[in-house]
Amino acid sequence: MVDARGFTLIELALVIVFLGVALLASMNLMSGALSKSMKTELQLTAADLANEKMELIFSDKNTKGYGYVAQGRYVLETDVNGKLGFTRQVAVIELADSKKVEVRISHSGIADFVLVAYLANY
């Protein structure tokens, strides 16, 4: 009798197919995770940019007065702080006894991020 050692060609082919399928599945999972990670990064950047502008508006109210903010002197900004693709705009909306301030951050990769604050003349 011949002592058979090693693997047959069919066994090797099956292992290669199995490893190929496993590799494709793991690559698909990593691709999805990377996509979600990039979207999350864009959302965090949008939140930071909106918060930064809102802090500036609060500072303007404290240093330049309520009237300055009420006039809505904030222009549309593109590629905000060197962040390509981001736009930032401010809307000051008249209410009965206060102002509604909306900071909207837009980017093609995410839904618009809107930060809202209400300011009163106190």
Description:
The protein is an alpha+beta fold. The protein has one domain. Helices cover 49% and strands 24% of the residues. The protein has 2 helices and 4 strands, in the order ααββββ. Strands 1-2-3-4 form a 4-stranded antiparallel sheet. A hairpin with a 4-residue loop joins strand 2 and strand 3. The chain is rod-shaped and about 100 Å long. The model has no long low-confidence stretch (mean pLDDT 90).
Radius of gyration, in angstroms, nearest whole number: 28 Å
Task: Return the domain count.
Answer: 1
Report mean pLDDT, rounded to a whole number: 90
Query: End-to-end span in angstroms?
Result: 101 Å
- Model regions low in confidence, pLDDT < 50 over at least 5 residues: none
Q: Give the proportion of residues in helices.
A: 40-55%
Order of helical and strand elements: HHEEEE
* Order of strands across the main sheet: 1-2-3-4
* Class based on secondary structure composition and strand pairing: alpha+beta
Count of helical segments?
2
Instruction: Report the count of strand segments.
Output: 4
In short:
The chain is an alpha+beta fold.
Set out the fold topology.
Blueprint: H1 9-63, H2 66-70, E1 77-78, E2 87-94, E3 99-107, E4 110-119
Antiparallel strand pairs: 1-2, 2-3, 3-4
Structural features:
2 helices; rod-shaped; 4-stranded antiparallel β-sheet; alpha+beta; single chain; 49% helix; 122 residues
